[in-house]
Design a protein that fits this description.
heterodimer; A: 284 residues; mainly alpha; two-stranded antiparallel sheet; 2 strands; B: 354 residues; globular; cell membrane (chain B); branched-chain amino acid transmembrane transporter activity (chain B)
Amino acid sequence: MLTILFDGVAYGMLLFVLACGLAITLGLMNFVNLAHGAFAMAGGYVTAILINRWGLPFLATLPFAFLVPAAIGLVLERTLYVRLYHRNHLDQVLFSIGLVFMAVAAVDWTMGSQQQFVTLPSWLKGRVDILGVQVGLYRSFIIVVCSVLVVALQLVLAKTRFGSRLRAAVDDPRVARGLGINVSAIFAITFAFGSGLAGLGGALGAEILGLDPTFPLKFMIYFLIVVTVGGTTSLTGPFLASILLGVADVAGKYYVPSFGAFVIYSLMIVVLVLRPQGLFARAR
Amino acid sequence: MSHASADSFVQSGIVARTLARRGRWRVPEILFWLAALASIWLLPDRHLILNEIAIIGLFAVSLDLILGYAGIVSLGHAAFFGLGAYTAGLIAKHFALDPVIGLVGAAATAAALGWVTSFLVLRGADLTRLMVTLGVALILAEVANQMAWLTGGADGLQGVIMPAILGRFEFDIFGTTAYVYSLVVTFVLFVIARRIVVSPFGLSLRAIRDNSLRARAVGIPVNARLIAVYTLSAAYAGVAGALLAQTTQFVSLDVIAFHRSADVLLVLVIGGTGYLYGGLVGAVVFKLLQDMLASITPQYWLFWIGLILIILVLADRDRLTARLTAAWRARATGPAGGAGPAGGPHATPASGER
């Protein structure tokens, strides 16, 4: 029971790191970026390649898993995404589905369609017994890393100069521009950072979620659920939603395996019907 | 009778005449359907792919009804397509009834699902609708997967043998009967859809699409209209799915998968939204493209589809569509009319007084 709760929380934390970039682009910048999972996949593949072909240790690959997707994100944002900020949602959906299709086919072509394995260092394997609860070491590691990220993100958004500029740019780009804030640079940095976080999440989650070319399609729905269920006015909403979904998903798969996949979709529909703005958001 | 109501009486006469004129069949439209008819004899060895084009075309027309006319963005239209396919497949497998009855059954179940889920779609804006439609389709796909005793699960529904249509026309291996059958059904449903979108009901849908707040203010029952058109669109998608099940005599989880919802969106976008022919034109282009690209790079045609999508969006498909429809309308109004680029209901009464 507590083990399930623990696994669920770890899973939820992972979901949050994967989805928080989307929470910013979709939630704050109002851009429906279905291709978010492709950046996560990029991070996962960077780690897998570095470990399996170059023999780097797991931890050393994580910075690259952040940087490479961030760089890709930056380039794509400057060249393509920036043209679509003012378009309607349908255009954004079509564009990002196109990106997903291209990413899936390109990875399939270069890396093959088989699943990639990420070898964990031995000190992250196994479980320990804490007060009668079976606790997986790797999942504890994920919880620690993700908690640090969550706190850091919240501090950056709430306390730093960059955070307040970002919030201003999101709330009213015109006024922000008038105040001398370089809105497009801020959006570009934020987008790159969100993509990088997705990549990091992909690298951390490769072991738990599995990694193959269909990753962006398979998990797209989860990221979207996190953001839409969590509401989009803050990061706290998506965070709580991630934990809720993580626990619900793990518990659902454990207790009612045949209904595992229904739990999360039904939860989403119920939440959206009751609260179209999301569970933890004030109506705008 | 007061002066005001007499005025509105005259007005409604003008509106009725305008609508009637807009609903008249144009030469290019007739040529389009004649070409489709001629393809039965001119392309005798292509009936299998033509059959698929007709089915995808009908599916895209059904999406156009809600997307192009009512402005509802759906990422889960495969739910209705898949339900229709399974319904038709099961009817044939267990009752061996006439395919036409299968079509009616598929339309009924899909419409029922559409009606129920339309209440979910009423809530929220674009993003919520996207998520809810996607969620409904995913749940349904999971249901089809889990109920293997009924649907065959991942192996698909096997042993479907289709009786002859109306007890007379047997399906053949060249797909000729199948194509003619699909074409006739698509044509009939298209004519009905065309009639609907030029009716006052269709006009009110456009008003809702353009500005639902204003539509409500002028007295259009927004929710009732959206429920009606969503249900109708679901029924159409169900029939398209049923056609696929009947003409291929096989149903698998593929009919309800996410990529089907994405494909049909792509088909419609290629052809252009909001003028019904977009779905049909898109289906032709999409199928030919798929055929061509798949023969060059069999495994990776998804890549090219993605590229085409991105190019379409960056080239501003809205403007492309607007240009297409403007050209269409200019031809439609003919030499007598000058509906202009605005072409809306404000412009038409002026040109309506002949």
